[in-house]
Amino acid sequence: MKAHKIFAWIAIAIGAIYFFVPLIGTFEFSLRMRRGAYSFDAYQSVFTDAQFRATFGFSMLMALVTIIVGMFLIVPTAYWVRLRLPQMRPVVEFITLLPLVIPAIVIVFGYLRLYNSSSWIPFTGSTQGTNILLTFSYVTLALPYMYRSVDTAMRTIDVRTLTEAAEILGAKWPTIMFRCIFPNVMSGVLSGAFITFAIVMGEFTMAALLNRPAFGPYLQLVGANKAYEPSALAVIAFAITWLSMGLIQLVSRFGKLSPARP
Description:
Helix content: over 70%
Low-confidence stretches: none
Number of helices: 12
Radius of gyration: 22 Å
Largest sheet: none
Strand content: under 5%
Order of helices and strands: HHHHHHHHHHHH
Number of strands: 0
Mean pLDDT: 85
């Protein structure tokens, strides 16, 4: 038994070294911008860059819109499949897994082919239309994670009983959805939202090919032209991802503790 514990701790130590040593090295290098001394000059240079603020704000806005659109698309779909169309569950799961199989560059080229300025729906003919198309692209990328988070949360409640009880009390479909279902799957929605946020903030391919001022292309641009700022941006990006993961764990813990709402 002790040998198993020793091997387990060795494996954990190796994993921690493999993960943290490169990150520590990146952080240490980001502090070397001032010759002969450690400083946060690289971080100051990043945060005072107008392009950083513009691209970060744009991606934050796109992440928020993507989360809202994904939430209103996926929660009713998962609810309806679980309540009325259980035989369609394998089909829906297969469809939601497709973005993991199809490369992002293939998806965005398909969108450009279908929605270019000379098509019936010319999304790329205007800035607002291109932003809408980018939102749909992000929703597609986040679909596997958002759907599974919501579906997992929906498994913990008795959807049929909640629906029948609400119908007996005279509730209509919108009331059932927003007063009964949404509050009970909010932990799953928030988990999917934080994953979606991390995906949108770091995504490069779709934003670059659609020529939108997002944070991902900005990371690539800085990495190609500067020395210390890319390391600072890498640490910032890791911090955003870790924050999202921490919030997911926090939401999941509170979701397990809170009872289902009638």
